[in-house]
Amino acid sequence: MSTPQQQAFLADFRSMSSFGATAGGGVDRQAATWADGQTRNWFRGLVEGHGFEVRYDQVGNQFTLVEFVPGAPYIAIGSHLDSQPLGGRFDGAYGVLAGAHAAMRLHEAFRVQDETPLYNIVIINWFNEEGCRFKPSMMGSSVFTGKIPAAQVLATTDPHGVTVREALESIGTIGDFSLDVAAYLEIHIEQGRSLEDDGLSIGLVESTWGANKYEFVVHGEQAHTGATVIADRSDALLGASSLVVAAREIANHFTTAEHMVITSCGEFTVFPNSPVVVANRVNLLVDIRSTDPTVLAAADAELHRRVAQIEQWAAVRIERGAEHIWAAKDYDAAGLLLAAASAEKLGLTYGTVRTRAGHDSTNMKDIVPTIMLFVPSAEGISHNEREFTADNDMLAGVDLLTDLARRLVTGELVRP
Amino acid sequence: MSTPQQQAFLADFRSMSSFGATAGGGVDRQAATWADGQTRNWFRGLVEGHGFEVRYDQVGNQFTLVEFVPGAPYIAIGSHLDSQPLGGRFDGAYGVLAGAHAAMRLHEAFRVQDETPLYNIVIINWFNEEGCRFKPSMMGSSVFTGKIPAAQVLATTDPHGVTVREALESIGTIGDFSLDVAAYLEIHIEQGRSLEDDGLSIGLVESTWGANKYEFVVHGEQAHTGATVIADRSDALLGASSLVVAAREIANHFTTAEHMVITSCGEFTVFPNSPVVVANRVNLLVDIRSTDPTVLAAADAELHRRVAQIEQWAAVRIERGAEHIWAAKDYDAAGLLLAAASAEKLGLTYGTVRTRAGHDSTNMKDIVPTIMLFVPSAEGISHNEREFTADNDMLAGVDLLTDLARRLVTGELVRP
Fold first, then answer.
1. How big, in percent rounded to 5, are the helix, strand and coil portions of chain A?
2. Half-sphere exposure (CA, 13 Å, Cβ side) for A169?
3. What is the model's pLDDT at position A373?
């Protein structure tokens, strides 16, 4: 039996999932597109209906202010409403809506219960967590935490030359608001299968994986696929394909019983990409992740050795462009213990997990005490229209988030 | 010292090269684009200025009628004005303009010389030889020779969903003209380096290579590049990249001192192609070519064995879509001897060559006696803005084409 509050959450989740909905049951809400704008406006209407105020900062982060104590500092709860192309309806959006419902429940509770909040709550819908239309990912939280200048983000263009500033202005979700926060709380679907495999309903994130992400440009020489003999070819597609295969071989080689290595290439663009033309250029992104810094360093060195070998074998030149390096890092230990106590009190099964994916909390944990929670993902499927989390798992997460938010707002983790 | 006729050819060639000109010295005139339409209209103006009539057939092949004997059958000289994206200014366009100038010279010559033409000449600018915007290549000549139905071609769409019919109507180069021809003559740049390496100015094409072209679709499962463990991945990009590498390994393995094998992948498109998403699908084209049918068959069988291995290794499904098979075939032997005699008479150095690239003459040789001539390409560079053929080589080709056209028109190869 679900409560009226739980029914309200599920009803709002269904409404939210209709924005940018795809035929396959997912959503396509890439950052600052019309569909993202629609979702942001719907969310604004939802929280304004509960009497909360909405503000935007200079890079489109959307802040919902929930005031308990006029003038008090803020505890932030955040995630993102943007999605991958043909993404799932849970990734990010679940966490933002869960934050709103936790705040609504506390808003109600503090009117009747004898507790003294020390903080206000701000729910943050971070701009462009996904990083598909505009690179890099976690853009809004990177600016908020001072890792990337706002001016650089605003001038970043999508593949059609539209800047972030233009895109945000076109959907009307940009402003000049700013705010400091005292602690950060995020809930997200796991996007892996460890909770499901272990039969747990909550994951407490203890650390991030280390991740090295590289943009490579493979340079070849445009030629005729029929007429040009092999000896005369400098085939950028062959070089880039070899790099994709090498990355997988490295993951297989360096993974041990103790430490996993994951390598990926998500974006791979061939120029001029015509049936009878040997490619002159391929742009691709390769990333390597591992739980262990030593293993990561060894795998990374092997990748760069392989790059040099491929340059020889395929007669191409491989240019290394931008890189993004995230060291493996722990979440706040006191926050982890507090989350465990809260789950224990609510009678939820839980365990600690490491996150391989980046989240806005990856940025936030570097500036304030941060707690990151996971709920299960069916079969670990994510960035896919078939992404799924059961209603009961979502509801357990909202209950936990609400209890933790109450603890943070009443000073259990940090004090003003 | 060049003659006024030669200077006129070079001047027209420079004018023609300004249509769709790119910053890198090449042209971008994909089939039935605005730039292709501009070039076709310019060519029409050029030949109409010499008193010739222009007609279009139902799939946009452009016919320039040069009448010597009212009611007589036609000898055709053809090539194509369309180009690759960022293609060279010689590929195809040289042959069409050379045909026009050969016809102009004969038109002049027959007024003053005592020779009796038995045929008229038609210069054909074939629609969409390149096959980049609309697939397959050699589209116009495939319809003309009855290999593909016109209705199928007219309904073929480009990546934006525009049909061939719509594109041809938008540039106004479609009609209902039809014509039978008695023999076919084509001159083209070599797009290889054998003439240059051997110090020859003319190549007489004795045969085509055999070519097997396959459209593959690699199916994977969309997933998160960070969160999804390797064991759970079905990465379409890994499967497709493995296929590209396998194709090159096959070329290296099967090439011997006697027979060359060439493999290529020109088009390779990744879906959804987002930085943090494991690809769910890659569409790619793979072709294998060889001078020897037995070697080609062995290499082809190996490719399909490798496809099955890659399906296992990368945990993907590889679907084989459309295929285009061209058997190695000889050009008309009498035509080859006639071309040799003509080159001999003009004092040009020449040798026989095989063409690896497809040409409209590949289609035409299956229905009428066909002669295919090559002029040198600097360093064999083609389908590239840096494609280059020297003025003297172009002019020698026009001289040879003119002499051969004269011989054909006066009945030296076929007689009405």
1. 40, 25, 40
2. 7
3. 98
Please answer yes or no on whether A232 and B356 come within 8 Å at the CB atom: no
Contacts of A124 (CB under 8 A, 6+ apart): A61, A62, A63, A64, A76, A77, A78, A99, A144, A360
pLDDT tens over chain B, length 416 residues: 689 999 999 999 999 999 999 999 999 999 999 999 999 999 999 999 999 999 999 999 999 999 999 999 999 999 999 999 989 999 999 999 999 999 999 999 998 888 889 999 999 999 999 999 999 999 999 999 999 999 999 999 999 999 999 999 999 999 999 999 999 999 999 998 999 999 999 999 998 888 899 999 999 999 988 888 899 999 999 999 999 999 999 999 999 888 899 999 989 999 999 888 999 999 999 999 998 889 999 999 999 999 999 999 999 999 998 888 888 888 999 999 999 999 999 999 999 998 878 899 999 999 999 999 999 999 999 999 999 999 999 999 999 999 999 999 999 999 98
A379: chain B residues, CB-CB within 8 Å = 232
For residues B51 and B43, what is the distance between their CA atoms, to the nearest angstrom? 13
Interface pTM, i.e. ipTM: 0.77
Residues in chain A closer than 8 A to B240 (CB atoms): 241
- Report whether the peptide linkage leading into residue B275 is cis, meaning its omega lies within 30 degrees of zero: no
User: What region does B151 belong to: left with phi over 0, alpha with psi -120 to 50, or beta?
Assistant: alpha
Cβ atoms of residues A42 and A89 within 8 Å: no
**Every domain range in chain A assigned CATH 3.30.70.360:** 210-326
Distance from CA of B179 to the nearest CA of A (A): 30
Model confidence pLDDT, tens digit, residues A68-104? 999 999 999 999 999 999 899 999 999 999 999 999 9
Tell me the residue ranges of DSSP E strands in A220-349: 223-224, 261-271, 277-278, 281-290, 317-326
Measured in degrees and rounded to the nearest 5, phi and psi for residue B289 equal -130, 145
How many CB atoms within 10 Å of residue B331?
24
Which helix (H) or strand (E) segment holds residue B111: the answer is helix B93-112
CB A128 within 8 A of CB A165: no
Taking CB atoms and an 8 Å cutoff, what residues of chain A touch B278?
264, 266, 383
A193 to chain B, minimum CA–CA distance in Å? 8
* Partner-chain contact A192 B244, CB within 8 Å: no
Q: Which of A225, A273, A282, A360 to mutate to test the interface with B (most CBs of B within 10 A)?
A: A225
- The chain B residue lying nearest A191, using CA atoms, is B227
CATH homologous superfamily of A4-208+329-409 equals: Zn peptidases (3.40.630.10)
Mutation target to probe the A interface, by most A beta carbons within 10 A, among B80, B196, B225, B245 is B225
We find that the CATH architecture of domain A210-326 is 2-Layer Sandwich (3.30)
Which residue from A minimizes the CA distance to B253? A230
Q: Where in chain A is the domain with CATH 3.40.630.10?
A: 4-208+329-409
